[in-house]
Specification:
The structure holds 2 protein chains of 2 kinds. Chain A is mainly alpha-helical. Chain A is 73% helix and 6% strand. Chain A contains 15 helices and 6 strands. Chain A is globular and about 65 Å long. Chain B has one domain: Formate dehydrogenase/DMSO reductase fold (Up-down Bundle). Chain B is 75% helix and 1% strand. A two-stranded antiparallel sheet of chain B has the order 1-2. In chain B, helix 1 runs antiparallel to helix 3 and helix 7 runs antiparallel to helix 11. The radius of gyration of chain B is 20 Å and the shape is globular. Classes of the chains: A mainly alpha, B mainly alpha.
């Protein structure tokens, strides 16, 4: 975004970035938490142990709040394709519209039909149907994620398209479009990251109760489920999914890889910078501490592999905010490594039976929950900043995609509106979620007292 | 093929209006027919668990429109810019007030969210009505098929028009009245006690008010778009729409006089569907009429995506629709009958 503040593309990008980053804070927990609900409902069915049901009931309330904010902040996203990116919609709508519509037909219909049942329907439906509702909602949220990632994968690595006589994009094969290799790898990576968020949130609440020495049975369950899933997911998010994702960027977007790593000059034995600040005008990384050969190995399999540098590409093909791209990627990797470390320690302590008495570890787990959100956001910033200056990689420039008829005044006005509205929404969400957590899972009677009053 | 997709997209929009329209209507009436906290909960419970299921039809409609008529979506969404964002914000406020209002058992908290709820439903009904008026009247499309429209210009219906003029405002008023009538009919079906009785009274008077308003907007439409009727009479679906309207009048009258609430509500849905079908058939194949020059208009034929896009959409759409029908049956069975504040309550009172 090196353009002037009079550039309409800047404001439309800013608006989209703000609304999508904010929106995605919610679906990542939905997708991560959904399988915890399924697991607990399943255990409750199998064992008849009341603690699993109680856990599912408690987390369903938080899930419901989170889901609602996800729905209301998600609907604007689809419309912003038309309002602020109408040239892009006109050009590529025949292709990307397929998956956006399929998301509605196959995912949203499923989720919205069963979310009410999941959250309020247990008494009417009985445990078995209620379990199926949890599965339906979990599936719906992951299907929704897949269709969105196919859409994004087309923008990163377009497949199955042709340019029609009228100059617009047409689709040539539905199956090739839906099975884009980029989509599969990115989906796997993204869903593992969502599970990391879910696992950290569950562990965090477990630690909170354990530290306060309340709800001890529930705390133990959350810690057990949370740290186990946390370890599995944070390992999988790095390897193989993250590794494959980086290799794929190297294969299809070599200039992006060079920018992510701050590689100004190409060569074999390319290193990974652990620390260093890119200085674009002088074309160098300041204060670099590098692991030699690591990038060659990670991206192409051998230490001798040649990694292209930014100098090998014309400057107009460089991502337009290399600094932010570089930091997003590096911070994501750093956080991801710390997640693995933390969860390894937590699981080791749990295996020794000492997790609940490790006060320091519980403190870290309790306070760690924001960081997966940050890492998820940084991952998406890496993907989307890395795609620049293209809206559809190699096909369509971002500067050609915004709505020509919409003035900056309109975009800034609606941006301000969204910032205000989402600020209030965030406060409400935090207040109500905090309230549910403070009530806790054992206070069912109090939380539902209104029913008795009404009847 | 293109005509089929025009029909499918219209069908999805009609379904959305019939489903979410009841929520707009019930939401607007909320203040006037529910006097005590328990009565308000009844109204909320009638809408509560289903609002997101209704709202996603709008998303399904938007997505399908992008897939099969990308040029229309691009032009209309950018052109209706501010109005569309008001709709989006209205939808956010509506959803939030429903979900959040019940979380605290506190009078001030609930009164506030009740107000937000009623306000956002009014806003949405008026905006959707004005949008329908804009489609009928047309927008200032230029030769490239783009337009940018102020909220209002000189309140006239030709040339460089604004979102609001005497015609679109009157369509908005009509939409408001008919949606409230629809919501009142729905509440009559779903509630018991005082809310039920008040809803029934409101529904009768409102449907009576719809009749003269309908005549008025028909005449107005003829004045604004004299070309439409001559065009509509060659479209068999226009007659189907009129037939639906006629049948729904009979169903409504018989439903209310025999106190068969389900029948009345079916009539209410068919009335909305019939009116929208009549409109969709009358303007076909034009989807967005240009007030500057008729040749600038966006039609189904010049807005459609490539043949492949339409063909592939023919593969997944029926599957998705079959699943949606299955969910619909499931939901209708599960939520059949009068609401019970104890069992169906939204949130955690």
């Amino acid at each position: 975004m090196n353009s002037s503040l009079y550039d309409p593309a800047f404001w439309s990008r800013f608006q989209f970035a703000f609304t999508i980053v904010y929106h995605y804070l919610f679906p990542q927990l939905t997708m991560g938490l959904a399988w915890f609900l399924v697991y607990w409902k399943w255990r409750a069915l199998r064992t008849g142990d009341e603690k699993y049901n109680r856990a599912a009931q408690f987390w369903a309330k938080i899930f419901g709040l989170n889901f609602a904010v996800g729905v209301v902040t998600g609907i604007p996203m689809e419309f912003q394709f038309g309002t602020n990116w109408s040239e892009f919609s006109k050009y590529a709508g025949g292709v990307i519209g397929q998956t956006l519509a399929m998301e509605g037909m196959f995912a949203f219909f499923l989720e919205s039909a069963f979310i009410g049942v999941l959250i309020w329907g247990e008494k009417r439906l009985g445990p078995r149907c209620h379990f199926l509702a949890a599965v339906a909602v979990a599936l719906g949220s992951w299907i929704s994620g897949y269709f969105i990632l196919v859409t994004n994968a087309f923008m990163q690595h377009p497949v199955a398209y042709q340019i029609e006589a009228n100059g617009l994009l047409g689709i040539t094969s539905l199956s090739s479009y839906l099975l884009n290799s980029w989509a599969w790898i990115q989906f796997a990576h993204n869903q593992m990251a969502a599970l990391v968020t879910g696992a950290f949130v569950v562990s965090s609440v477990g630690s909170f109760y354990a530290l306060r020495r309340i709800h001890s049975t529930q705390a133990r369950l959350y810690l057990r489920s949370g740290t186990f899933m946390g370890l599995v997911a944070s390992l999988l998010v790095a390897f193989p999914t993250g590794d494959q994702q980086a290799k794929m960027v190297g294969r299809h977007q070599p200039v992006t890889l060079a920018a992510m790593e701050g590689k100004f000059v190409g060569g074999p034995l390319a290193g990974v910078a652990v620390i260093g600040q890119p200085n674009i005008p002088q074309r160098r990384l300041e204060n670099p501490i590098e692991v030699p050969g690591a990038l060659s190995f990670l991206a192409y399999g051998t230490f001798q592999s040649y990694v292209q540098g930014l100098d090998e590409f014309p400057e107009d093909q460089w991502p337009d905010n290399i600094e932010l791209l570089y930091y997003s990627f590096h911070l994501m990797i750093t956080l991801g490594s710390l997640f693995v470390l933390l969860m390894m320690v937590a699981n080791f302590q749990r295996w020794r039976g000492r997790l609940e008495s490790s006060t320091w570890l519980l403190w870290v787990l309790m306070l760690a929950f924001p960081f997966p959100y940050i890492a998820n956001t940084l991952g998406w910033m890496t993907a989307e900043l890395g795609r620049q200056p293209w809206l559809i990689y190699g096909l369509f420039h971002t500067r050609d995609g915004y709505s020509k008829v919409v003035s900056n005044g309109d975009t800034i006005f609606t941006l301000i509106g969204f910032i205000g509205l989402y600020f209030v929404l965030g406060l409400l969400f935090l207040y109500l979620t905090g309230r549910e957590i403070a009530h806790g899972p054992d206070q069912d009677v109090v939380a539902h007292a209104g029913e008795e009053v009404v009847s | 093929m293109i005509a089929v997709w025009y029909a499918i997209v219209s069908f999805m929009l009609i379904t959305y209006v019939a489903l979410d329209g009841r929520n707009f209507g019930a939401g607007m009436l909320h203040w006037f027919i529910a006097k005590t906290p328990e009565e308000r909960r009844q109204v909320i419970a009638a809408i509560g668990p289903l609002w997101s299921w209704h709202e996603v039809w709008l998303v399904g409609f938007g997505g399908t429109l992008l897939a099969v008529f990308p040029r229309l979506l691009a032009s209309a969404f950018a052109g209706y810019y501010l109005a569309l964002f008001l709709i989006l914000w209205g939808l956010i406020l509506r959803g939030v007030s429903l979900e959040i209002g019940g979380h605290l058992n506190d009078r001030l908290w609930q009164s506030f969210w009740d107000f937000v709820f009623v306000f956002s439903n009014f806003l949405l009904a008026i905006l959707f009505g004005a949008a329908a008026g804009n489609v009928a009247r047309g927008v200032p499309l230029d030769a490239q098929g783009n337009f940018s429209m102020a909220f209002f210009t000189n309140f006239r219906t030709s040339g460089y028009v604004g979102l609001l003029d005497w015609y679109t405002v009157s369509i908005a008023v009509f939409a408001l009245v008919i949606l409230v009538a629809h919501g009142a009919t729905y509440l009559t079906l779903k509630t018991e006690g005082p809310v039920h009785d008040r809803s029934a009274t409101w529904a009768r008077y409102l449907w009576l008010a719809v009749a003269p308003l309908f005549v008025a907007i028909s005449i107005e439409t003829f004045v604004v778009r004299p070309d439409l009727p001559g065009h509509a009479i060659y479209n068999p679906f226009w007659y189907l729409g009129l037939g639906l309207v006629a049948a729904s009048i009979i169903t409504l009258i018989s439903g209310f006089s025999a106190q068969r609430e389900r029948r009345a509500f079916v009539g209410s849905n068919f009335m909305l569907a019939g009116l929208l079908l009549t409109g969709a058939a009358a303007i076909f194949p034009v989807m967005l009429h240009s007030t500057l020059a008729p040749e600038n208009s966006i039609t189904a034929y010049n807005a459609a995506a490539s043949a492949n896009s339409l063909l592939f959409a023919c593969i997944w759409w029926p599957v998705g629709f079959a699943l949606a029908t299955f969910y619909f049956v499931f939901i209708s069975r599960r939520y059949a009958g009068k609401v019970s504040v104890i069992r169906d309550n939204q949130g955690f009172y």
